[in-house]
Amino acid sequence: MNASSPNDPGPNDPFSVGGDTNDTDVLARFRQDVPAMSAQARFQGRQRLEAAMSGQGGRPLRRPRTRRVLASAGVALALAGGVIGYQIAGPAGADTSAQAAEVLNDAAVTAAATAHTVVGLKPRPDQYIYLDVLHTTSGMNDRTQSWTSADGTRQGLVRTSGFMGDHSSPIDPYKSGDSLRDAPYLVLAKLPTDPDALLRILYADPAVLGDQQHNGTKADVALWGLLRDLVENVPAAQEAALFKVAAKVPHISYSDNATDAAGRPGVAVGLPDPRLGTIQFVFDRSSHAFLGERILSPGSTTQVEFNDTVQRTAVVDKPGQLPNP
Q1: Where is the stretch described as Disordered (predicted)?
Q2: Most exposed residue of 56, 108, 173, 216, measured as fewest CB within 10 angstroms of its CB?
């Protein structure tokens, strides 16, 4: 465990968050009249703030953001007409365990041999990748359906439905030089499958570099954030390579008791992100096939804030078209 820096929050720092403390708990230290906040309201506040901080507002998405939370350096909550910013202090990462690396390497073998998510797809450049993702947030469900241009040259579509309401937005075409997290399927299919070569590319990705430069994020945490955006969207060989890359990341941890958004039991490998909590990949207990992702509350090893899993992937001819049953 690294020694604390002079700027690290101490135990009496009102802006530090530990254990299962949430945003409202922090506010309550200053305002005793702050009411208890539901998970839905807390999530809505974070979504609105993230949109404002990213400058996106209502602009079209470049690609479907299937994740419940998009990290920004320092999470803030808009409440009662004001915005209070604070730094989330996550748990220190444990040393990389042999179990975590073993699961990831097994997952790489399974990904290369088993058709799941977008593994077996062979789209034409003019077709679209359909992705149906189930999200759970504190027991409440959302569904995201997206249609992304296979070669990135055409506008796509993303629809969300559930406790956050029903929304539709276009997905912008991909621009060369954008982060790989925005890259279409046929661009991702060109990534090297050698994990060392892929690791060099990922560390040089604009999103990873920008996260470090603008948010002060550690390189490995920024890399893990990019990995979580890619694993559901790449062909088999690249997915296998991504899991091998993940096995090289320091301070990953293993959990032998995890459940994905669909309720399937499994195991998990994760890395603490001080802005969000521990971001975990969930794998089938036996085959170590990739099931989905979950995020644990900052400082907690059991409290799940967000969870998602891919329910269906297919190739279709146009945005909005549903695949055959």
Answers
A1: 1-23
A2: 216
Show the tokens assigned to 109.
């073998």
Q: Where are the beta strands (DSSP E) in 80-152?
A: 82-86, 128-137, 140-149
At a CB cut-off of 8 Å and minimum separation 6, what does 256 contact?
99, 267
Q: Strands 140-149 and 265-273: what pairing?
A: unpaired
Task: Give Cα separations from 213 to 72, 175, 208, 272 (angstroms).
Answer: 12, 22, 9, 19
Per-position DSSP letters for 229-280, written without gaps between them: HHTTSS-HHHHHHHHHHHTTSTT-EEEEEEE-TT--EEEEEEEEETTTEEEE
Which residue's structure tokens are 């060109």?
Answer: 190
Listed by start position, the domains of the chain span 1-325
CA neighbor of 269 nearest in space, from 277, 261, 278, 260: 278
Instruction: Look at the block and give the residue holding tokens 């085959």.
Output: 287
Distances in Å between the Cα of 123 and the Cα atoms of 187, 308, 316 are: 12, 25, 8
Q: For the chain, percent helix, then strand, then coil, each to nearest 5?
A: 25, 25, 45
Give the Cα separation of 303 and 277 in Å (integer): 10
Q: How far apart (Å, rounded) are the C-alpha atoms in residues 284 and 209?
A: 32
48 pLDDT exceeds 50?
no
Residue 278 half-sphere exposure toward CB, CA atoms < 13 A: 27
Dist. CA 276–CA 70, nearest whole Å: 9
pTM for this prediction: 0.73
**Eight-class DSSP state of 31:** -
Which residue did the predictor score with more confidence, 232 or 206? 206
pLDDT at 258 over 60: yes
In which residue are the tokens 């990949």 written?
281
**pLDDT per residue as tens digits for the range 4-16:** 333 333 433 333 3
